[in-house]
Design brief:
The complex is a heterodimer. Chain A is mainly α. Chain A has helices spanning about 1-30, 35-45, 50-60, 65-90, 95-105, 110-115, 125-150, 155-160, 165-180, 180-200, 205-225. Chain B is about 75% helix and about 0% strand. The mean pLDDT of chain B is about 90. Classes of the chains: A mainly alpha, B mainly alpha.
Chain lengths: ~230, ~100
């Protein structure tokens, strides 16, 4: 039991290091948007997600509505439902409802990817180990970024503002290179987003993301339906 | 609106999205359209969030473009997320020195 936990932790170390540096950027961005270091850290501790948090602080900073916050979080994080669904088929018998309720907190892109890659069933202790170390990296990075954003020279903290977006590009570009369908979806969404930003200015940034993403994903699903064998 | 309300709503929605399928859903989705949509939505979301916001992320459009180009090239060659992110940031920083 204990060794499963440590095993999960050791597998989670690369995730934690990656999270540490990326959430540093989130911490800087959050504090620049007017949040306190504590609020930024609380967001990271409670959400454990990058894109949703970045969109969330935009909404907070721009004084968006709660409905907007709900819809944006659903749209951006709906992928976790699919991951959770997929992962639920891989759980060991030890995963009682209580364990599932607790562990679902930690389903992120990276944790999902690593858990999926494990052979055989996953036990709760393994997943807890991985989630714990990843969350420590994510929250402490946010905390440090929030502080350093005020302490570091402007030139460095400005340059770190691009960290999160750099990570997003690193997520979307490799599959775009390999699959024409993903490339079309990504380009459509980017073009729509530029149109929303410069031509349809009354749409807030959160709704703009929803509209652009849903239109381009629907187009993608209609034009390039995923074949059975491509499913994982 | 209090920031705490936003934060709690945000956290609650994010948790529920993960928790419901993980805890309760046992069947598999059959609709090809829904499966396709769910496969494309993460990329669509990240793309819309990144473009054009990335160009304003460093407070200077030129340094941001330099960082973006570096990120695109490195991501194209499948480098790890963290390498891409840090290199983009470093490139923006270096570009910023010369601007």
């Amino acid at each position: 039991m204990k060794s499963d936990f440590l095993h999960g932790m050791s597998h989670g170390i690369p995730i934690a290091l990656g999270y540490l540096s990326v959430s540093f950027g989130f911490g800087i961005t959050a504090v620049r948007s007017g949040l306190s270091v504590f609020e930024a850290s609380a967001i990271s501790a409670l959400n454990l997600t990058s894109a949703g948090q970045a969109a969330g602080i935009d909404i907070i900073a721009s004084g968006g509505t709660i409905l907007e916050m709900i819809l944006v979080q659903i749209t951006i994080n709906i992928r976790y439902s699919l991951m959770a669904l997929s992962l639920s088929q891989k759980l060991d018998k030890k995963f009682t409802t209580g364990h599932r309720l607790l562990a679902s907190y930690g389903i992120t892109d990276e944790i999902f990817a690593l858990c999926s890659a494990q052979s055989g069933y996953i036990v709760p202790a393994y997943m807890y180990g991985m989630i714990l170390i990843s969350a420590i990296g994510w929250v402490s990075g946010t905390f440090l970024g929030g502080y350093a954003g005020q302490l570091l020279p402007e030139s460095i903290s400005s340059a770190m503002g691009i960290l999160l977006y750099g990570m997003f590009l690193a997520i979307i570009i490799p599959p775009s290179r390999k699959q024409k369908s993903v490339l079309c979806v990504v380009i459509t969404s980017a073009v729509l987003s530029v149109i929303c930003k410069y031509l349809v200015k009354f749409i807030s940034s959160g709704f703009s993301v929803i509209i652009c993403a849903v239109i381009s994903a629907v187009l993608g699903a209609l034009l390039f339906p995923v074949k059975e064998e491509e499913q994982e | 609106m209090s920031t705490a309300v936003y934060i709690l709503v945000m956290a609650g929605v994010t948790y529920i999205i993960r928790m419901i399928p993980f805890t309760f859903f046992k069947k598999k989705i059959k609709s090809q359209f829904v499966k396709s949509f769910l496969q494309y939505i993460p990329y669509a979301v990240l793309s819309a969030m990144t473009i054009p916001a990335i160009f304003y992320s460093t407070g200077n459009i030129t340094s941001a473009i330099v960082g973006t180009l570096i990120a695109i090239v490195l991501a194209f060659f499948d480098l790890p997320l963290i390498v891409v992110a840090l290199s983009a940031s470093l490139a923006s920083y270096i570009a910023g020195i010369f601007l």
